[in-house]
Amino acid sequence: MATVPATQTFLAGEKVTASKLTAATKTPIDFLMNPPRCSVAYRSSDIASDMIATSTATLIPFGTEGWDTDSMHSTTVNPSRVVFNTPGLYEISIFARFKVNATGYRQMNLRLNSAGDPGLGSTLTTFAQAAGPTTSTSISRTFDLLVTNAGDYVELFLTQSSGGNLGLDSGERVTGIMARWVGTNNTA
After folding, report:
1. What is the pTM of this model?
2. DSSP states of the chain
3. pLDDT tens digits, the chain, 188 residues: what are they?
């Protein structure tokens, strides 16, 4: 868990020391230059057996990481989760690209603390769109999320209605989640 640096103040007439100046400037700047953040991707290559069944909300496990500065993801323990170890305001981006199929809709649902079940936890965002007629169907959403409890996590569920099983395209920033700490819990 990263520690958000405390705000430092100086009193009138106070002698400025190196340690206090470091705490007031360098420590917060270092934190802001490398905040808690992660980028996880579904797969690094296509796997034909990984299919999203029609009309079924499917939990997506993430097999690769682009970066992870705060131990927010594990490829072996609960690989579907992005865990917020440092409370604060996060910018969240979710995205998915389904294989070519012109029938039906494609949907993503990001849930908070759902324990791998599309009916548990809280829905943070749901977004759906019609399938593309001749190309892969890409869907995405970016929003801010205020996380007040260390250990809260999000999971991505995908649904499609093509009438058969449908795969996902692979690669970084094709199907995945990105999360980046952008501020404290102060909402005032």
Report:
1. 0.86
2. ---PPPP----TTPPPPHHHHIIIIIHHHHHHHS-SEEEEES-SS--TT-EE-BT--EEPPP-EEEEESSS---SSSSTT-EE--S-EEEEEEEEEEEPS--SSEEEEEEEES-TT-TTSSEEEEEEEEEPPSSSPEEEEEEEEEEE-STT-EEEEEEEE-SSS-EEB--STTTSEEEEEEEE-S---
3. 677 777 777 788 888 888 887 777 777 787 787 788 999 887 766 655 568 999 999 999 988 899 999 999 999 999 999 999 999 999 999 999 999 999 999 999 999 999 999 999 999 999 999 998 888 999 999 999 999 999 999 999 999 999 999 998 877 788 999 999 999 876 55
